[in-house]
Structure prediction request, 420 residues.
Amino acid sequence: MSMEKSSHVILTSHKSEVYKDALPINWGAKDPKERGPVVASISNPLHRNAIGSHSGSYTVYRALSIASGQFPKMHIPDLKNTESTTTIGPQDSWTDPDKFVSIDPWGADVNVHFKDYMEKGYDVRPSIAVTQARLQLPEIYEAIKAGRLKPDGKLINEKGDIKVTKVAFEPVWYLPGIAKRLGIDEGNLRKILFSETGGMFPELVTRPDLKVMLPPIGSTTAYIFGNPADLAKPEVELTCRVHDECNGSDVFGSDICTCRPYLMYGIEDAARTAQKGGVGLIAYYRKEGRALGEVTKFLVYNARKRQEGGDSAATYFHRTECVAGVEDARFQELMPDILQWFGIKKIHNIHSMSNMKFDAIVKSGIEIVNRISIPDELIPPDAQVEMEAKKAAGYFTKGEVKSGDALKNIKGREIDEEKR
Ligand SMILES: [Zn+2]
Prediction:
């Protein structure tokens, strides 16, 4: 019966039909009421002032659930007791339209910031959520056993579990700002977003007055060790890792790259800094396989291992480009928005060897003091190819950089395949 109602489709490109009672969004305005809420819920099309819908890539699963009749189409979330477990912001950066283009700084606790609008019937939904957790990690238990970390009954309990605050961010794009970061024309950006998604969002080209889009892409999660308010204080030592997802290594311990070892080392060091009176932050971006995805990544693994002469550091990036068309599709210019949300002005220790990440952070106005590369003993043998290739390509290291035959001689394990 609910299908009957939804079978009548109104095209969103007709301004007179939809978005009629939409509130304006004044991106960068000082007060949330003046800025206005981003209304991307679909319960009332007349109120919408953004393109796309909530939940990032999970939008599509919600649609499946509604289509199958399991999910009530008109459900409006009851946000009682969902407020943040700790107050973060507002920061000065929240009102700088250039500092935020990929998240909504007012996206957390919308039932507080936009209470008046919600009372008037606007279905405003959060795009940021703050909660707390305890981490149980084998590498941290080992660090305690080795004496590198000590339980203190506060940050780390007797069992070795670490207390953290965690924050989830859904992408909210301010299209003029995204275009500016890319250094391209907004109209061009909108046209390419429209055509490359197979025409998924017609308003990108038909409704230039709608400036905000919630794209169906992965989210970001931040883990904070210590007091989140200290992130905004440049005098408090901050240890930070900005990590792009690598599911094979991060979760399953696959040994072809250094992602999990580097991530765990970052967590250990973030916790150590917090125990010394500083603060730690791990920002985890769902940008699998340099934002090319796992299918491309696994194809590249095979192509690397099957090439003449075997997997070698000298041809590491070349093989990716042959399969994917580009070495890296991550575009790190949007990444610092998360750091700006916490009001970060200075990072004392950054766990990253990437110059793209370093440059993007510095360009966003954040000072970086120390760059920390992964310790050699944490690099799995099969990951030497990746590591030496990255160092040769200019990634940050205090160690030796190989070239020529020395680089060619860094070889990965041979492919173990059934002969066909
Ligand atoms: Zn990896």
The radius of gyration is 23 Å. The pocket of zinc ion is lined by residues 246, 249, 257, 259 (CB under 6 Å).
